[in-house]
Design brief:
Distance between the termini: 55 Å
Helix content: 40-55%
Largest sheet: 8 strands, mixed
Structural class: alpha/beta
Shape: globular
Order of helices and strands: EHHEHEHEHEEEHEHEHEHHHHHHH
Number of helices: 15
Oligomer: single chain
């Protein structure tokens, strides 16, 4: 039996407790300062406040003030914070983590450095931190917290620099429903799964366009969604090549993109924009919530435009991403240039 400490009691972090406990490991779930109500509710009822499911029995719950206690004797630390908690995780958690304790992050996303180069969170974390060289690993691929908790057949990828550590993670978490590939191409996996947020917004523009034409609840048009899905995969693959990572990581982007377009706030914002709302109006409909899809679209477009200015990238290869950026950051109306997606292929 191993001791697995999870920092971040949100839905995905908490969902990781299911395969962990079913493999007979001790799970310590620690809330961030924003998770206080979740931990209190779980202690009283055994249920997760937002996941709306009974958590596995035997979990030990801790408020953030007890983090050091929850970390004592741990074999693995899972970072369950979302992308808006990255800075907090770096300043409040990483200094407390011993160098010998491997970390598995479920946070998807990227930042841009001062020259608009995209940097994955594992790379950001993995820099020698407070004199320590930490083992930072991450989870990529299509997985929703609800369906992991419900034991739906799930395929993910654990990535990190040390294949032996990844194999140990796989042994800890793999179950008959949670299937784990391994990759040492950390940047490739992380770029792929982060980019899906931007393109999920793009695909769901077609949902809103259908509703604009047929009315909400009317006939959905799937040809247009499929066209945007295909263009998304084409552009993601080209972005992976520009990043000089293995472009076969596209499989993780495709699966994650497929999952994301079917629900959540990213689908909602894309749909609202497709209906004809301005970006400002659409954000207002969502009560001003900052979405990861908006952040990653903006960061990726900034990096892409920098590469275009340097002559590294061709804007003709990225009509969808550049149009998404124009919509959310430059006030452009929805005006998809469908002809820009066509191409000519020459066989061998």
């Amino acid at each position: 039996m191993s001791i697995i400490t999870i920092i971040g009691a949100g839905m995905m972090g908490s969902a990781m407790s299911y395969p962990a406990t079913e493999n007979s490991h001790e799970v310590r779930l620690v809330g961030t300062p924003l998770d206080r109500d979740i931990i209190e509710h779980a202690v009283k009822t055994g249920e997760h406040l937002t996941l709306k499911r009974k958590l596995p029995s035997g979990i030990k719950f801790f408020q953030f003030e007890e983090f050091s206690k929850a970390l004592t004797g741990a074999d693995v630390l899972i970072s369950g914070v979302n992308s808006f908690g990255v800075d907090w995780f770096m300043t409040e958690i990483l200094p407390l983590v011993p160098q010998t304790l491997p970390i598995l992050s479920i946070t998807k996303g990227m930042i841009t450095d001062p020259d608009d180069t995209l940097v994955s969170y594992p790379k950001l974390y993995s820099k020698s931190y407070y004199g320590k060289n930490l083992s930072i690993n991450a989870v990529g691929g299509p997985c929703t917290s609800y369906e992991l908790a419900d034991h739906d057949q799930t395929e993910v990828c654990f990535c990190g620099k040390d294949i032996e550590i990844l194999r140990k993670f796989k042994a800890l978490f793999e179950t008959p429903y949670y299937h784990i590939s391994l990759s040492t191409d950390v940047e490739g996996v992380e770029y792929a799964v982060a980019l899906k947020n931007a393109y999920a917004l793009g695909v769901t523009l077609a949902v809103g366009l259908s509703e604009r034409k047929e009315g909400i609840g009317g006939t959905q048009h799937y040809n247009s969604q499929a066209a945007l899905f295909g263009q998304s995969i084409r552009e993601i693959r080209k972005l992976l090549k520009l990043a000089k990572v293995q472009d076969d990581n596209i499989i993780f982007a495709a699966g994650d993109l497929y999952v994301t377009i079917f629900g959540g706030r990213t689908r909602k914002i894309g749909t609202l924009l497709g209906r004809g709302l301005s970006f400002k109006e659409a954000i207002s409909e969502l009560n001003g919530v900052t979405l990861e899809s908006i952040v990653i679209s903006t960061r990726t477009a900034a990096a892409l435009r920098s590469m275009i200015n340097k002559g590294i990238a061709d804007p003709a290869d990225f009509p969808l991403l550049l149009h998404i950026d124009d919509i959310i950051n430059h006030g452009a109306p929805i005006d998809i240039d469908w002809n820009a997606f066509t191409t000519e292929y020459k066989g061998n």
